[in-house]
Amino acid sequence: VGCDRSKNLVDICGEKHFQAFVCDALSVPIRSGSCDACISIAVIHHFSTAERRLATIRELARLLRPGGTALIYVWAMEQEYKNQKSKYLKEKNDSKNKDKDINTGTAQRPLSDQGPDNSSQDSAWSDQLLKDLKDESCGAKPVADFRLPVHTNRTSFHSQDLLVPWHLKGGTKKKGENVDTVLVPGGSKESQELSPVFHRYYHVFCEGELEAVCRSLDCVRVQKSYYDQGNWCVILEKL
């Protein structure tokens, strides 16, 4: 059984005859101890405070029966690890070759939840306040003015808390919609249209951070912690 915050994504699952429902990761309407296994892929890095990230993992653990396991993937601060670049960084050159003007892209394959390329946002800043800035860590640069930096896609991270731009390919800007727009390349001027660019919040995890959060819970033990293509991952067992 799948669940997601997005009704549109859940509707797609229904069209494909999968069981899925809409819910919030902080409050899943399933009985405690009723699941043999749970997975959380590219979800927890979207929660903006340490307390909410911990609460999400506690909720995941609540669903598990004793002896049940959970797999968690979050985006890593370290996109270069042990002298190896992640797939996310390597795809930068591929994107440029496919489309020299702009790459509207698609969502990354399931384990990585990456956004499309958007070089026009290199120096942009959001107006959203960042209330829970942490001390400088992982080599991250401190945010200059309490506003979240907008990440340049397919590049290394310079902040743990940031916004990642997402294009809606072929989309149109709705009236009153406060989003940036860029021209999508087309065969002619007439075929080009404005594509909205949305900004999604991410907290990218440093090495050991996800494992430490999981170890703070008495109800689970960490079976395994590892790095996989730009993601930090843990496997938990319910005690």
Task: Give the gist of this structure.
The protein is an alpha+beta fold and 239 residues long.
Question: What does this entry look like structurally?
Answer:
This protein is an alpha+beta fold and 239 residues long. Among the domains are: 30 residues, no CATH class; 117 residues, Vaccinia Virus protein VP39 (Rossmann fold), CATH 3.40.50. The strands form five sheets. Strands 3-4-13-12 form a four-stranded mixed sheet.
Our measurement of the CA-to-CA distance between the termini, rounded to an integer number of angstroms, reads 23 Å
Q: How are strands sequenced across the largest beta sheet?
A: 3-4-13-12
* Computed structural class: alpha+beta
Basic shape: globular
Rg is 19 Å
Number of strands: 13
What CATH architecture label of the domain at 35-85 and 148-169 and 195-238 applies?
A: 3-Layer(aba) Sandwich
Report the total helices. 4
Mean pLDDT: 79
**Beta-sheet strand percentage?**
25-35%
Low-confidence stretches: 99-136, 181-192
Q: Kindly state the percentage of residues in helix.
A: 10-25%
- At CATH level 3, the topology of the domain at 35-85 and 148-169 and 195-238 is Rossmann fold
Can you identify the CATH superfamily of the domain at 35-85 and 148-169 and 195-238? Vaccinia Virus protein VP39
Task: Give helix and strand order, one letter per element, not per position.
Answer: EHEEHEEEHEEEEEHEE
